[in-house]
Amino acid sequence: MAINWLQETEKRRELLLQQLTKLCSIESVLDESTANPGAPFGEKIAEALSYMLKLGEAAGFTTKNIDGYAGHIEMGKGEELVGVLAHLDVVPTGDGWISPPFEPEIREGNFFARGAQDDKGAAMAAFVAMQMVKELDLPLSKRVRLILGTDEESHWRDMDYYFEREKMPDMGFTPDADFPIITAEKGMIDFTLTGKVDTNEAPADGWLLESFEAGQRFNMVPDLAQAQLQGDGDVFELKEKYQDFLLSNRIQGYAEESNDHLTLVLEGKAHHGSEPEGGLNAALRLAEFLSSISLDTTGSQYIRFIAEKLCGSFKGEKLNLAQSDDRVGPLTVNGGIFRYQIGGEQGVGLNIRYPISGELTAIRQQMETEAESFGFTVEVVDHKKGHFVDEDHQLVRTLSRVYEEQTGEKGETMAIGGATYARALETGVVFGPLFPGREETAHQRNEYIVVDDLVKATALYAQAIYELAK
Ligand SMILES: [Zn+2]
């Protein structure tokens, strides 16, 4: 029996948009202030979950709400379980929207609303896909579960809670990033390197580093760095040297004097920490300049660490951490947070992404060896193991074939440095909803999804669900 999936989806286009409009009208941003038993992440997130589960019941599926942490909508029969994992929480909206973020609007074929792309659009597409498979009365030999999480944007407490109580699907996909298929994601470690800074004296004709500051987050390239100096050196000469450095490197920044302090500011360019070479790391460049002048011993040691171990070493070469595999590529190091205060503390926050073949223990030991020689104490503050599904796995082969059949494009697999919801599944990959070449608007103002893409994604999910569970 040949089914025209896209044609079947077209019949449900209006239904899809109506239901999505209702879902996107719910302001499901994490709100601990309205949290209560049954609504651990706030009332609005609980409302979005119960809206979806009610739709599921009305469509004749089995549903379950796991104490408001997550829920599922289930169809089919059999021992084996196929999972589709989407989330209903959204990030805050920020200002500057053309239409209100929780009053969905279609303009020029684009559906605008917070959550349109991340991830309510995909959650609804997957739900309508299940409805379609049911209405077409297709025989299934496995169960299919649309698992709806509610804390993806914050701490993943939804999935911890859910999988402590519910069966792990034998395989599944999450429609929470890009088409075609993401099968591999790097491991991730956030390190803090900390130490004390005693009060200190400026060297003769040199400078005392009073403070150094850049960055707020481990996984972002800092776009601004600032250092404060004090001393009897030649201020004029230093300012000129700094200007030369900025000019010859085509970097924005300035030096400012006030009450015998000299402040150096350097403007970089922010970028996601999974690609530390992208953007311009303001801290690294400022440290590079500071390493060329005479500083007090502690200040100089701090700056030397950045200049000698991080500058120009985005693959961990100078920390002796460089490694790579052919699944996800090289280890990367992002210097995300820098704090130095005379008479206080010094710290560096590093985000490291490592290949599937890498090991936390070995990386930590090497980091300790390198950082302790500069007087730092090393701590792992966050760790996520790498995630990988073999290209030959039935899951990957099926999704790839479905994608090729419906789009006529190659159902290629991809590896990324970032972390997706697929990691919550033991055997899980990303499958959509963003098609290649489309603008990524998740987490941005005027978030939207192309309506025709949403319809195409629904058709893909329907066939995928059927092929995986038949
Ligand atoms: Zn998401």
Automatic annotation (TrEMBL):
InterPro entries: ArgE/DapE_CS, Bact_exopeptidase_dim_dom, M20A_pepV-rel, Peptidase_M20, Peptidase_M20A. GO terms for molecular function: acetylornithine deacetylase activity; dipeptidase activity; metallopeptidase activity; zinc ion binding. Its cofactor is Zn(2+). CDD domains: M20_PepV. It comes from the Bacteria. SUPFAM superfamilies: Bacterial exopeptidase dimerisation domain (SSF55031), Zn-dependent exopeptidases (SSF53187). One of its GO terms (biological process) is L-arginine biosynthetic process. The keyword Metal-binding applies. Keywords: Dipeptidase, Hydrolase, Metal-binding, Metalloprotease, Protease, Zinc. The keyword Protease applies. Belongs to the peptidase M20A family. PANTHER family: ACETYLORNITHINE DEACETYLASE, N-ACETYL-L-CITRULLINE DEACETYLASE. NCBIfam families: dipeptidaselike (TIGR01887), PRK07318.1 (NF005591). This is Succinyl-diaminopimelate desuccinylase. It comes from Marininema halotolerans.
